[in-house]
Amino acid sequence: MTHKDTTETRQSIIDACLWMNSSGLNQGTSGNISIRTDEGILITPSSLPYEDTSPEDIMLLPGDGLSGEAVGHHRPSSEWKFHADIYNERDDIHSVVHTHSTYATALSMLRRDIPSVHYMIGVFGGDSIRCADYAHYGSQELSENALVALKDRTGCLLGTHGMIACGGDLKQALWRAGELEALCQQYHLACQLGEPHVLTAQQMVEVRERMKTGYGVWPKKD
Model-level pTM? Predict the structure, then answer.
């Protein structure tokens, strides 16, 4: 079997992790990133500082990622289960970004969905950002809760935990993570001033229809 050189892909995960921390979207090693490849799932190792991570430190979960066998010098992220389950549930997703960003995590502590208070909610595929029920990190229950919250969506909050943002590639997933944190911050600030207006279901349908022609960062079609 011929193995592709994934050094560039592995380095892109490290670069994205370093950017997340420098931008304030994440802190320490609390977040994790994965990319679906032909050979399996490439994912950040557990508890290894990003600045000390090299391409060979990125872990590979072969095949569908659910065998429990990881290839590499470390343990895969403790959240590897929901990464693998998302890929196996959704053919449209090829990269997953998980962060403990400040505002997303704060709203997740309230177990609060974000309604359509801004049209940018539409980039996640619906008229709200759902907040998944709480479950212990790394558990099968957390994975199942995340899949419920992500149904027909590409982003969600994890109850008392953080956020997940997904994309057709890493660039899109990372962009959505930044957009989701911005929406959480804006929603938080608006709630301090009063009750935010919510766009109607029809207005959100119109927004999502307009977005089909392209908005933000989208993977190139073959």
Answer: 0.93
**Which active-site residues does the annotation give?**
79
Torsional class of 22: left (φ above 0), alpha (ψ -120 to 50), beta (otherwise): alpha
| Beta-bridge partners for 164 | 98, 156
Neighbouring residues of 188: CB distance < 8 A, sequence distance ≥ 6: 103, 106, 107
Contacts of residue 206, defined as CB under 8 A and 6 or more positions apart, other chains included, come to none
Instruction: Confirm if 184 and 121 have CB atoms less than 8 A apart.
Output: no
DSSP H or E segment with residue 110: none
At position 51, the amino acid (one-letter code) is E
CA angle 61, 146, 54 (to 5 degrees): 35
Helix, strand, coil % over all residues of the chain, rounded to 5: 40, 15, 40
- Beta bridge partner(s), residue 71: 60
pLDDT tens per residue across span 97-148: 999 999 999 999 999 999 999 999 999 999 999 999 999 999 999 999 999 9
Exposed, middle or buried, 32 (CB in 10 Å: 0-12/13-18/19+)?
buried
Contact 219, 167 (CB under 8 A): yes
